[in-house]
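Quick question, first post here. What does this chain look like in 3D?
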Amino acid sequence: MHRLNVTIEFKNGNERDIEIAVNELIVFSWTGRNIDIVKKLVEEREKYGIKPRTIPEYYRLQPYLITTSNYIRKISETHVGEVEYVLLIRNEDEIFITVGSDHTDIDAERCNILAGKHMYPKVVARRAWPLDEVEGHIDKIILKSWILEDSKKTLYQEGSLNMLIRPEKLIEQVREIVEDMRNVVVFSGTIPTVSGQLKVSEYFEIKMIDPVLDREISHYYWVD
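> Answer (accepted):
Ran it through. Tokens below.
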């Protein structure tokens, strides 16, 4: 059983370390809140021959793919990161939110999306917030990612969670997929890129910003 260790940050300033013995790792795609966002996501990937079968779509992956590492191994030339919010469902009463990247291989996804998503780890930050502390202002939370272009850090993605499926709706869908809502990690699906183009980078940085409670969670990793 794969174990994930994270620190929970509470809005009162307290912290608590928890361990999740991951039973299920579920990655969603095409989860834009409206048709315009979904269209942008589809257009970015159609250039590589990747098309949705259904909207949204989900994939049950091997739990061992989840990691908080700052380094993952490069095994192809067409790998890309994508920032997402991630739900850490310890049980029905303990659900946390953090930021992550569904790192994947776009060329492999063209042939088989599930196989492509298994080629690279799914990276999450080492810190998280209780979901119930942000539910009231969830749409104001911001996601950002950066890549390296010509050795310079460049903004790659930026958008608020009002672009994506709401966490409660995501949880409803997860209940239909798994029998046991304990120790489940769920990736929400990503937002469009700033340029409208997927780009390969050996460095990927992700951030989730809560402007209401004035806090943020960030993480970075190298593809080496």
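The two ends are 26 Å apart (CA to CA).
Helices lie at 35-46, 106-111, 113-117, 167-177.
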